[in-house]
Amino acid sequence: MKTYLFQTLAILPLLPSLWIICRLISKDLERIKDSGNLSISNDNGTAITTTSVSTQLLLFITLGIMGHVGTNKLIPSIQYYMLKRGISGKDLGKKGTAKENDDIPEALGIVPGAIFLICLIFCLVGFATNHPSKLLDLNSALLSICFMLFLGFTDDVLEWPWRYKLFLPSVASLPLLCCYEGSRSVVVPIPLRFLLMMDGELTTFGKFLCNFVIVDTNADGSIINLGIFYLVYMGLLAVFCTNAINIFAGINGLEVGQSYIIGCAVLFHNLVEIQSDSLSRENHVFSAMIMFSFLGVTLALLRHNWFPASVFVGDTYCYFAGMTFAVVGILGHFSKTLLLFFIPQLINFLYSIPQLFKLVPCPKHRLPKFNAKTERMEPSTITTTTKGNKERVNMTLINACLQIFGPLSEEVLYYAAL
To answer: So what's the pLDDT on residue 51?
Structure first.
């Protein structure tokens, strides 16, 4: 039953992307039927045979499937070595049950991360052949993801302080920012444009803003070039992505499950842009290449981390997944759109700010507590001493969900959170 449910729920987020891939393949088959090949003409009128997008996507899918199989086979072996080395922990959501004292291996995110890097290296060979201009982007992506994978694994073993977790992702994003060649402009919402320009002239606020950014007067203040501030935004985006997944956690499978859904959404966005022949098509092919391998290894890990979890992914996977999303958002030139896929994580972050910045006491673990009598998850609390010994619920989206809907089983809570 668990396997059937897992397979059903896993395929649903992928269906829209599979439909678009089928349409792209059908379109290329029609072109072959009409002209006999997929050649295009260069500036001299000479026909050049090219690898179609659908063919490239099929190769990326093949690598993703191989990554899935490799990760699924390797996890049980690494699971044994993690337990042998004592890299394990207890499931705090199983207190009061027979599984309370079971040792569960941690930091298994290292397996999909390593397999993903291998897949990406193979992609480097094939993708660079058809898109030589993207070779620098691919190398910087490998460097940034590898750095975060290393940081996550060392954090699981050594438990780095939070100040390092905020600083080091910024360093890891530097290779991405150095090779970024996209637009640094943003579109100003229509209701706010009067603040910048009125009757064809810059307002006082618009003139003040011009000291820091470039307001496009030819576009009536509808576009602002942020310059270096846009690079700062993308650096902060990398920090947010790597930590947002980490703090929106606490129940079996949630870190991997949310990453899988976000990955499916990113892939769908890429395929829609590829299908529409947008000007940034090459960037979206690059992003789709990364996403296929990522989804393959993530789905394999989710099989083992699904409730009830037989392995824990640790910060290793959270940092690896977060940096992967930052990579495709920055190098795919849709960093603003990427935030739309992180709305639940953004809400959870904003709601958690008082505890994250120590305005309210923040315990090490804020996950819901398990009531062994009712076999339900309940909101966890923290005792504050500012106004007497008063208990208040830990400020996370999961605890808020339990406050609204009442105690739920961990499995139902998992589905509700996703």
So the answer is: 63
Q: Residue 36 contacts by C-beta under 8 Å, 6 or more apart in sequence?
A: none
C-alpha distances out from residue 391 to 60, 266, 354, Å: 51, 40, 15
Specify burial of residue 170 (Cβ count, 10 A radius: 0-12, 13-18, 19+).
middle
Contacts 24+ apart (CB under 8 A), 71-76: 71/111, 71/112, 71/115, 71/296, 71/297, 71/300, 71/301, 72/300, 72/303, 72/304, 74/111, 74/115, 75/108, 75/111, 75/300, 75/301, 75/304, 75/311
> According to the model, what pLDDT value does residue 61 have?
94
Backbone angles phi and psi of 332, in degrees to 5:
-85, -5
CB neighbour class for 47 (10 Å; exposed up to 12, middle 13-18, buried from 19): exposed
Nearest partner of 251 among 325, 305, 301, judged by Cα: 305
Calpha distance 34→63 (Å, rounded): 30
Q: How many CA atoms does the CB half-sphere of 5 hold within 13 Å?
A: 7
Identify whether the C-beta of residue 94 lies closer than 8 Å to the C-beta of residue 324. no
Q: Give the 3-state secondary structure of residue 258.
A: helix
Confirm if 134 and 127 have CB atoms less than 8 A apart.
yes
| Backbone angle region of 97, left / alpha / beta, with phi > 0 → left and psi within -120 to 50 → alpha | beta
d(CA 36, CA 43): 21
First to last CA, the chain: 20
The CA distance from 327 to 293, in Å, is 14
CB burial readout 261-299, b (16+ within 10 A) else e:
bbbbbbbbbbbebbbeeeebebbbbbbbbbbbbbbbbbb
Residues of the chain below pLDDT 50: 40-50
pLDDT value, residue 47: 41
- Three-class DSSP category at 25: helix
pLDDT above 90: percentage of residues in the chain: 48
Non-local CB neighbours of 11 within 8 Å, separated by 6+ positions: none
Q: Which two tokens stand for residue 386?
A: 């500012």
Q: How far apart are CA 327 and CA 324, in angstroms?
A: 5
Are residues 91 and 128 in contact, defined by beta-carbon separation less than 8 angstroms? no
Global confidence as pTM:
0.90
The CA distance from 137 to 20, in Å, is 26
Q: Are 234 and 328 in contact (CB under 8 A)?
A: no
Count Cβ atoms below 10 Å from residue 372 Cβ, excluding itself.
11
Question: For 313, how many CA atoms within 13 A lie in the half-sphere containing its CB?
Answer: 34
